[in-house]
Design a protein that fits this description.
- The structure is a single chain.
- The chain has 364 residues and is α/β, with parallel strands linked by helices.
- Strands 5-4-6-7 form a four-stranded parallel β-sheet, sandwiched between helices. Strands 1-2-3 form a three-stranded antiparallel β-sheet, with no helix packed on it.
- Helix 11 runs parallel beside helix 20 and helix 14 packs across helix 16.
- The longest helix has 21 residues.
- The protein is globular and about 50 Å long.
- The chain binds adenosine-3'-5'-diphosphate (A3P).
- The site of adenosine-3'-5'-diphosphate (A3P) has 21 residues, from helix 5, helix 10 and helix 17.
- It is an enzyme of class 2 (transferase).
- GO terms for molecular function: sulfotransferase activity.
- Belongs to the sulfotransferase 1 family.
């Protein structure tokens, strides 16, 4: 990975996002900067078709600002981005897509995958200029829906150096065939106990919606209409894909990564075609990656304590709302017990069990 080029590009993305965010807080037709006009035609035409009437015809969950698109609930401003990805994503050999429902460890996975892939140019230990010491993980790996919704998909993705790392919250059935059926493209999926996911989502959402009741999120999750819901379908899609094509889809669990981070990083590096060499094993490089990306290490960094509004999500949805520190809360399993009664937990567990029945996968 050419990290320097990658970094320059990512910072260019942020400038664009900031400009784009000021102009496009609503879902209107994307009009690019004059200098981008040529490159953005394809994205813009897909977005145009999706703007206004088409999106407003989709089923809505008004409390959570969600629309149901192709059977899954997504944030309204992401819909045009998904349509643009489905129509215009140009795959490249070696692409790696990090997929997850929101609040399931995306930030951690981005950091681990980036550190693993970039370790040739930037050793995870002893490099004071390591990008992850200076930038939030979301600023190192772009979020596809946001990028394409901003009309910057083709331009930015084309310019990213190979192998490209990118992230999405799209469920598997919504991915374009250019990703889902592509033998040259790998997918790393991470999921988490949905009870902890909900708690994490509630705390995160309350930063911009202090009035949001936990019960609203909880009911939506049980009914299948929370963000990325039904959650069981999101998980099931990637679980089945990982069973059918284990060489192309790696299925990870947040709790398992907490339990054995080094083992999971070793597996991740193998899956990505970058196994640790005997010399690296001897030197403990996998452990270095884990240390660099640990919750406390990232949380305590200046950029993540005080940085703001530079992530793709924060930059466009509501500028500056999601400060970098908002991606690091507790970083543990089991916080749901502080927010749910045993009866609520049983209800959500039962909904998940029902949705996952027969799959061979279970959160319990
Ligand atoms: P909590 O809110 O339960 O603490 P996402 O990155 O998908 O938005 O998920 C956010 C969750 O991952 C938050 O969970 C956050 O604290 C946790 N997290 C962020 N970075 C982490 C890391 N390096 N290690 C473990 N957990 C991390």
């Amino acid at each position: 990975m050419n990290v320097q080029k990658h970094e320059v590009l990512i910072s260019a993305i942020h400038d664009k996002f900031k400009k784009a965010g000021r102009r496009r807080m609503k879902m209107d037709v994307v009009v690019g900067d004059e200098d981008d006009a040529g490159q953005q035609d394809a994205d813009a035409s897909a977005l145009e078709e999706c703007a206004g009437a088409a999106v407003s015809a989709l089923p809505i969950n008004p409390k959570l600002f969600l629309r149901r698109y192709q059977g899954t609930w997504v944030l309204e401003p992401w819909v045009p981005g998904i349509v643009a990805i489905q129509r215009g994503f140009a795959p490249r050999r070696g692409d790696v897509v990090l997929a997850s429902p929101p609040k399931c460890g995306t930030t951690w996975l981005k950091a681990l995958a980036f550190a693993t892939m970039a370790r040739g140019a930037h050793p995870p230990a002893g490099d004071p200029r390591h990008p992850l010491l200076r930038a939030n993980p979301h600023d190192c790996v772009p979020f596809m829906e946001r990028l394409f919704a901003a009309g910057l998909g083709s331009k930015v993705m084309d310019a990213l150096p190979s192998p490209r790392l990118m992230a999405t919250h799209m469920r598997h059935s919504v991915l374009p065939a250019s990703i889902a059926d592509n033998p040259d493209c790998k997918i790393v999926y991470i999921c988490r106990d949905p009870k902890d996911m909900l708690v994490s989502m509630w705390h995160f959402s309350r930063r911009i919606r202090p009035d949001l009741a936990f019960s609203d999120l909880f009911e939506a999750a049980c009914e299948g209409s929370c963000l990325s819901g039904p959650i069981w379908d999101h998980v099931l899609g990637y679980w089945n894909a990982s069973k059918a094509s284990p060489e192309r889809v790696l299925f990870l669990r947040y709790e398992e990564m907490l339990r054995d981070p080094v083992g999971n990083v070793v597996e991740l590096s193998r899956f990505l075609g970058r196994p640790f060499s005997p010399a690296e094993e001897e030197a403990g490089v996998a452990m270095d990656v884990v240390r660099l990306c640990s919750f406390q290490k990232l949380k305590d960094l200046e950029v993540n304590r005080t940085g703001s509004g530079s992530s793709p999500l924060g930059g466009v949805v509501r500028e500056g709302a999601f400060v970098n520190s908002s991606y690091f809360r507790r970083g543990e399993a089991g916080d749901w017990a502080n927010h749910m009664t045993p009866e609520m937990a049983r209800r959500l567990d039962a909904a998940m069990e029902e949705g996952l029945r027969g799959s061979g996968f279970s959160f319990s």
